[in-house]
Target: Peptidase S1 domain-containing protein
Amino acid sequence: MLRDFSICHDDFSLKPPDGILKDHTFTWLGFVQYLHVTTGLPHHSKSPRVVLIHKQFALGPAADMTRLPKNYKLGNIMFGNYERDEEDCGLTLAQTKMGAKFGVGNSLALIKLLRPVKSPVPRDFDTEKMAKRSLKMFTHKECKKQRMRSKLGSEGVTHVLCSSGCGIRPGAPIISHALEGTFQLMGIAVGGAACTRRSMRNRINKELPLFIDVYPYVNWIINFISAQILPRPYPETEYMRARRKQQSGWRARTFVVGDNCFKSLKKQSQTAFFYNENFEVNADPPGKLNVIMKFSAGIECTIVCVRLLLPNRLVTPIVHGVGGYNITVVFSTEWFPYTFYFSLGLNGRNTTQKDFLKWIGERKPGFW
Model:
């Protein structure tokens, strides 16, 4: 689900019937004008759709933003029946952001708007109308089967969405309306077969409309938009997290925490195995315990690997602080015998000068 960071366009009662819509029904749905480089007139038939996902960003098909008709350039983005400036923005390809992992033919373009959506200027004439149509979504298996039957090819079908219908313009979104009022953007159309005389009957068309699946792009979209608005975190550590989440997992009956634990033996040998201790637990009278242990290696030592040997793997312990000099180990004895043994081992390395200067202010008795 893609939502505006400040204006979410939530509306519980907005359920218009299929067909031509009134002005301002979906204020987040617009289209891109292709303007002739000489005359400045819009293209007579092509105008890919876009979706406003943020007050300054719109989402559309990358192919229609980069493969322009001959002698045409990208013009303005029109939303509903809004007004626009007299002169077009003259967007260049450099202002169209595309993901590096995906090809242009089946990708999304994130477009940054240079000027406000609505300005107090004279109206611009256009004939584009907004319409709504209810579609049936097909599974990847059904889509692949139908496209193979129509000899259209089924490569890449698992990465797109298929639906019923026909005559869908490139960039048209497929959305669902959640119960809490939010509109969920599922896919962006890459086009489909034109409607024929009998194509509106309730049957599967020979060429199903394809939609780019938005889900794989969500992280890229949110990260890019956030970088334009929010300040970068952690300025005191050169915009990097001081302690990122460490890997954890089981090795037989030993629970290990720390990226260093999963490296080669040669890499692990470069650290010091400086602590190892066996513990005995006797619950008398019989009972279940929550074990909480805190260890400090001193600010001169950075703990990079924790190994905790337990009676079985029915309880997953929690270890905090790996990558620093203090750690906390927490686990329950619910699935252990009333009397059992466990052991703890720690690997460490010399603290870097940067971390030492940062931690020196935290120095106090018991946590050196």
